[in-house]
Amino acid sequence: MSLGVRARGFLELTRPGNAIAAGVLTFTGAIVAGGTLEDTFVVIAAILATVFATGAGNAINDYFDRDIDRINRPDRPIPRGAVSADAAKWFSIALFGGAVVSALALPLVALAIAVVNLTALVAYTEFLKGLPGVGNVVVAALTGSTFLFGGAAIGEPLGAVVLAVLAALATLTREIVKDVEDIAGDKEEGLRTLPIVVGERPSLVFGTGVLVVAVLASAVPYLDGEFGLAYLGLVVPADVLMLAGTIQSFEDPTLAQRRLKHGMFLAAAAFIVGRVAALGGVSV
Ligand SMILES: CC(C)=CCC/C(C)=C/CC/C(C)=C/CC/C(C)=C/COC[C@H](O)COP(=O)(O)O
Ligand SMILES: CC(C)=CCC/C(C)=C/CC/C(C)=C/CC/C(C)=C/COP(=O)(O)OP(=O)(O)O
Ligand SMILES: [Mg+2]
User: Fold this and answer.
1) pTM value?
2) Whole-angstrom distance between the N-terminal and C-terminal Cα of the chain?
3) Which atom of ligand 1 is nearest to the CA of 271?
4) What's the pLDDT score for residue 282?
5) Is 89 within 8 Å of 60 (Cβ atoms)?
6) What structural domains does the chain harbor?
7) Hey, which of 27, 44, 68, 124 would you mutate to test ligand 2's pocket, going by the most ligand atoms within 8 Å of its Cβ?
């Protein structure tokens, strides 16, 4: 196998789009919490810690999921043979090391968040994912925590708490839809995910309810004056996209979870645009 094919396989293990997006969320948390150019060093360290941690968590997840993925995701690097399980394990450990080294440059609260998150990432697949709803809540909390982590890097851990809650709620809905999508392989492995325990439809109804709460709550940054119309101009289409995704999830969970992800990324852009517009004193 060529070096390029193997390198691509290792990069794929990190799910680079998610890892970079998580770093962007950390950056967003830092600037929304009031970070300035003087905080550049700690913000870069926090972004690196998040990118390394997310890549490590994705890689270790594929390592532990290698048997399920032969059913659910045969195209992924380990089941398709691009990366061996052992190489994936050591690659993930190296990435976890990078996250620890980066986090050591941060204030104590940020370091504490990193320690909790890294522990949860290692424990998730083997111990938490198979517990009905617990794994979904952990991934949602990890995703939302990126905003708190960015704030903590500049000494304001709760500076972007509203955005953290919005991200966690939307991620919780998407995780439930993904479990409906993966139900075949999860059943084979004896996992007790929410759709397996309570049924697909009740799970999706709950996920839709969670997203409706998140969509309603997404008005808060506008109503409390933190963000202006520039934010609304992006978050409203993001909300529509995510709501469309949950409605779609009853028929086509694969398309639905992708639509939810697109809506969530657009919502993340709304947070950044909202903050930049507020900083620029743009009244729109
Ligand atoms: C209502 C409202 C305004 C919600 C805000 C939604 C928001 C900003 C969510 C953040 C989504 C985002 C950009 C997450 C970063 C990437 C990440 C860490 C995702 C965690 O994904 C775990 C997932 O199970 C991975 O699966 P896949 O994406 O299929 O590889
Ligand atoms: C802020 C710091 C230091 C860390 C945050 C780290 C973040 C953002 C984690 C987000 C969630 C994440 C990347 C979880 C990794 C595990 C994972 C891929 C969960 C979903 O896996 P499965 O439930 O197996 O579903 P798929 O493998 O089919 O996607
Ligand atoms: Mg997996």
Assistant:
1) 0.95
2) 54
3) 8
4) 53
5) yes
6) 7-279 (1.10.357.140)
7) 124
